Amino acid sequence: MRFEALKVGELAQRTGLTVRTLHHYDAIGLLRPSLHTEAGYRLYTAGDIARLQQVLSLRQLGFTLDEVRACLDRPGFSPLEVIGLHLTRLREQMESHRRLCERLDAIAARLCLAGRSPPTSSWTRSRR
Q1: Which domains are seen in the chain, by residue range?
Q2: Is-contact 34 47, C-beta < 8 A?
Q3: What are the pLDDT digits (tens) for 65-74?
């Protein structure tokens, strides 16, 4: 079965993305259509759509557009590598949440002991 290349509007409609998003992906080199009509319209092939699926999957995992491009453009790119990157990011977020829980527990304990609101300084984190 032969695949007909899709114009940008057709691809947008089928994926739920906007034409503007697809144009942006093209402008930043993330998803460049393989073909163009004589009039200059973008045409997306099956290979382009497969790359778009990878882009969307990585974005859903929380990767920035720059991170997505770096992954997909790297020779030997591996989905296993993406899983490792995502696990690292999740572990960092978990550690951050753990520290936040500890701070909130300490503030709650002070509130219970004092029977009043703690000083504002206990709610703000020192950036030093």
Answers
A1: 6-75 (1.10.1660.10), 80-122 (no CATH)
A2: yes
A3: 998 998 888 8
